Amino acid sequence: MPLGTIASITVSLREVGFTQRGAFYPSADDDVPDIKNNEPTLTLVLAGNVGPAMWERFTSERDPTIDLLDEWSEDVIGKVAKLHGGKAFFPFHEPYLPFQRWAQRAQACYASPLGMFIHSDYGLWHGYRGALAFPEKLQLPAVQNSPNPCISCEMKPCLGACPVGAFRTYESDAACIKANYNVSACVKHLGLPIGNDCMQLGCRARRACPEGISARYQPEQANFHMRAFLRASRIKEGSNI
User: Global pTM?
Assistant: First the structure.
């Protein structure tokens, strides 16, 4: 099967609600799996969500109260990869693949003080849902090296917006500020009625970031992700759901 081009792959992803999130030629240090035995990955294209597009497509095809977003993502992105002669990898299963490292190879994105990756256009309202691996070097556009918006953000409202101070303490150096995330305080707050604002609209610290406001998730999507986060955190802590 002839391989697709970056342009055609981008269109196919967009048609099913996903965004092409950059691409690169892997090196041995990137820990990109082979497509199959003796067939290395020569081009890796990342697929993800930006703003509400993925959610709108997902909810038009599935019932989000009973269907898993990860399973749907695997089905949809896997079909796009196969259509263009590639193979898909996903961030959902152990052993976990280094998607954050790949993201920084593929596109200009940076660790924010909250720990989430920030993009100069999308702010904190984006994610990575899969990677499409190809056995040949596709022609790639130049990476746009946009600066880290957190560096020039003097006020850093994200650090003070959490109602329980989950990001109150942080480490700082010349390049960045990294909060010491108090997960337990966050999870406890979300489980109480007073945490309804964060549960229904999304993390208040995340919403305080002035970047990427146009890409902000709608309340239904924000609530879906917050419920998934709370459920996973309680399972990890051994709590009842």
Answer: 0.91
Q: Judge contact between 16 and 53, C-beta under 8 A.
A: no
Sole residue written with tokens 């003080």: 113
> Pick from 184, 65, 194, 58: which is nearest to 129 by CA?
58
Q: Is 100 exposed, middle or buried (0-12, 13-18, 19+ CB in 10 A)?
A: middle
Indicate the DSSP class of residue 44.
Answer: E
Q: 86 φ, ψ to 5°?
A: -125, -170
Confirm if 158 and 167 have CB atoms less than 8 A apart.
yes
Do residues 220 and 55 lie in contact, with contact meaning Cβ atoms separated by under 8 Å? Answer: yes
Interior CA angle at 106 toward 85 and 141, to 5°? 75
User: Domain ranges in the chain?
Assistant: 6-134, 158-237
- Can you point out the beta strands (E) in 112-217? 117-119, 126-134, 170-172, 177-179
Residue pointed to by tokens 């989950």: 166
pLDDT in tens, 9-68: 999 999 999 999 999 999 999 999 999 998 999 999 999 999 999 999 999 999 998 889
Instruction: Quickly tell me which residue has 């942080």 as its tokens.
Output: 170
Closest C-alpha among 111, 206, 128 to residue 163 = 206
Vertex 173: Cα angle to 170 and 179 (nearest 5):
20
Q: Rounded CA gap, 111 and 150, in Å?
A: 9
